[in-house]
Design brief:
By secondary structure, the protein is mainly alpha-helical. It contains 16 helices and no strands. It has one domain.
Length: 369
Amino acid sequence: MASPHSASKRLAFLDWTRGFAACIMLQGHVSNSFTHKDLRNDSFYVFSQFFGGLTPAVFLFLTGVTLGFLMDSQSRNEPSGSRRMLTTLLRARYLLLIGLLFHFQMWATAFGQSEWINIFKVDILNCMAAAVALLTPLALLDTPGRIRYGALAGLAIACGSPFVTQMDLGWLPTLLRNYIVPSHDFFSLFPWGAFVAFGLCCGSILRLVKDEDLPRAMPWAGLLGLVLIYASRFASDLPFSLYPKSDFWLDSPLLILIKVGVILLIACWAFVLTRYLNPDRWSFVRQLGVTSLLVYWVHTELVYGRWLGAWKETLTVPQTLLLDIFVIASMVLLSVAKTGWKGFPGVPALAKQWWLSARQPQAVQGSGD
């Protein structure tokens, strides 16, 4: 069995990937909240929002990866299928409760400037909960079965999204409809839940790959990512479509596949970085990934709440960049305060080595006296 230290190093690239998503989320939200209205057609703002749009896809994908880990562990240790499904549903309930608490806190601190119905807004945490609940039956399968059906579930959600958009679901309650129908205003199950399903597939694959085989497996993941990006991009330029109507930026399955490809490339780079280029040194990117939920919660209140209200939509590009740095640095400090460097074995060792080397000349000088 792998030691906690080796297990931590094995999964360090997932923390780094999540932390990278947190960084682009922070800059994207700061730009969205504080960049002056007259500058929102400039390249700085456009690129900021374009890259920031990748963040929810990464978070949902990695939620699926951890769900794959959970289901694999349960299939090894829990013979009862009903109990395995219950454990998965409890995970979905936890995500839903966290999402409701998050929006309740945002509503309460708005001091009457937000409607109470916003407590039930379908945000990314709500989408995570819905997708995990939908994928619960996969807990009954073995790990190879989850690889196959996780991929099929992701394709079904992604490919079905344009059809769901065109369906007349006005008879559904508004809240339930927001969970299902693609919208630019909500993180609906279609198409966003596809990332959780694809993540479940990849997480199940990771559970079958031995640590010594990861260096050979990750390049294949990167190659798959490139194929998904270029093949989907090529298909999006074709003059015909299988769908009578589809909005590329709302419900296109090709956009989902492109983003999955980008996530795989980011994960491959994170693997190389954390395994070979910088394996033991502390990384602020990985640090953010370890506490991504806390960072998400606090920064949203800081950026979109009343704390910096006087600067909303008034800053120039240099001022926005400075605020980006301030917010990211603040979230890193918050993360360090939360973890106390836990999960980074190299940091205490380096600190101890530096302390001993700093003390050594004094000890030698004292012994000579």
